[in-house]
Amino acid sequence: MKKIINMVEPTKSFQCAEACENLVGEEKNKVFVYVAPIPKNLKFEEVYPSERQREIESVSNQEVKKEKYFVWKLLLFAIQKKFDADLESIVFTKNESGKWACDRCEFSLSHSKGVVCVAISSFPVGVDVERVEKPKRDISGKILSEEELEEFKSLDKNEKDKFLISRWTNKESIFKMKDKKTYSFEEFKSYGGDVFQKFIEVGGEEFSLSVCSKTPLYVDYQVISIEN
Predict the structure, then answer these.
(1) Is 129 within 8 Å of 44 (Cβ atoms)?
(2) By residue range, what is the domain housing residue 100?
C-alpha cells in the first residue's frame, strides 16, 4: 500500500449527533476518507460478508461491477486499518432500502470513472467523488440554486465545469449523509451549506471530492493505491 497524499484540513461546524464508541479521543471528531484508483489488472476475489458478494455477482455491467467490488475492498481496508479488526468480527447489515451499515462506524461509499472512495466516521457521513469533465447536457438549471446559477453564469467557460461538478458532489454528499433515497430537482437545488470539498488528482485526472458529516472538526483524506 502506497500513500500518495495525506492531508488534514478544518471543516465548518455541524450540530453533533451522538457518536459511536469505537473511535476514541480526537479521532471521534474526524472523518477518514480514502480514495483509490481501480487497478487495471483487477481480479475478483470473494468479499465479506457473503450477502455483499452475492450483490456484486448480480451486477451485469462489468465496469459497475468492478466499482462495487473495489469500493467494498477499500471499505474493508479502511475499517481494518482504523480498528485493527479481524474481518469476520465486523458485523454488516443491510436495511430494506439496500443501505449497508456496520457495527464499527458510520460509512459512505462513492465511485466514478475508475476511482472509488470511502468515508468512515463516528457520525452519519456522506461522500461523493466525480471526475471533472464537461457534462453531456446542461444540468446547471436543474441542480443550482438561483444564487449559484448567477455565479455560474458569471464564470469563464473554463471554470464552469469545475463549479458545476463541485456543486453536484457537494449536494450528493449531503443527500447521502441525510440518507435520502429520492428527491426532486427543486429540493436538490436548495441543498448547500457546510461541506468539505477539494479538487484532487488521481491517476493524472482531476476529481471533485465532497464530504458532509455532523462531525465538527476535521476531514482526513488520503489518495492511496491498493494492488489486487
Answers:
(1) no
(2) 2-130+197-225
